[in-house]
Protein: Jumonji domain containing 8
Organism: Chrysemys picta bellii
Amino acid sequence: MAEGCWRQMGSWWQFLLLYIPLSLSGDLDYLEGNGGWLTNKYLALMEEDHCTVERRDASLTYSQFIDQYAFSRPVVIQGITDNSEFQALCTRNKLLAEFGDRLVCLSTANTYSYHKVDVPFQEYVEHLLEPQDLASLGSETLYFFGDNNFTEWGSLFQKYMPPPFRIPGTSGAYSFGIAGSGSGVPFHWHGPGYSEVIFGRKRWFLYPPEKTPEFHPNKTTLAWLLDTYPFLPPEDRPVECTIHPGEVLYFPDRWWHATLNLDTSVFISTFLG
C-alpha cells in the first residue's frame, strides 16, 4: 500500500489486515471453510465488536416481527433459514463449473447513475473480484449485485430458502451477488427487504428515513468508513451490525443503508415489493 494511503487512514489503519499469512496445510482448510472465496491474496477487514441492531433467534414469531420491526426498525434474525444446501452450491468451484461461461451484469458502486458492464462470470471471478482500491471512486468500482438473469440462474435460486416473514401485499424478488473485501454499496434507500450472507461477512450501516446520512454519492463505503465515520458525533452515528452466514438482516421501507464486505462475500437479498 502506498505511503499516502497510510497517511489518509491515520489511526484507522487497524480496520485493515493485509495479506494474512497462512501455512500450506492451513490454506487448504481455510479455503474449504469459506467455499474457496477467501484466499490469502485477498485483503480482509476487521470486524467491529459491537452491533446496535437487535438480534433475535428463530423463536421470533410472525406477529412479533410485524408488530416490532416490519415498519419501524431493522433486526438481525439468527437461524430463521437453513440454506446449507444453497451454500454448498455457492462454492467457488461449483459456481464456476455451472455458470462460468454465463454473462453477468456488473454495476458501478456509486449511489446514482449506475454504469453497467456485461462480462463472463469466470472473467469476473478470476480477474475482477479484487479487494477495494482505496483510491478508486464508486463510479470506477465494478460490483456484481442484483442484475441476475433468472432464466440462466434459476436452478440455483430454486434451492434458496428465503426468510418466511412477508409484509402483507408484497412479494419477494431475489438479488444475488459476489464481491471482494472492502467493496460495498454507498448509502441509498428503497423498499423493505432482507439480506443474507452465504459466505463471508457483511457490515451494514443504517439510518431511519428522516435522518439523511452525511456521504458523497461517488465515494465508496470504505472511503466513507475511513474519512467520515470516525468524525461523526455519537448522535450522528448509524445503526450498524455485521452479519455472518446463518444470519438474516431485515431493513424497513426507505431506510438509508450502506454495505461493506469484510471478506470476499457471497450474498443474496430478498426485496419485498
Observations:
- The first strand starts at residue 16 and ends at 17.
- The CA atoms of residues 81 and 163 lie 6 Å apart.
- The first helix runs from residue 3 to 9.
- The radius of gyration is 18 Å.
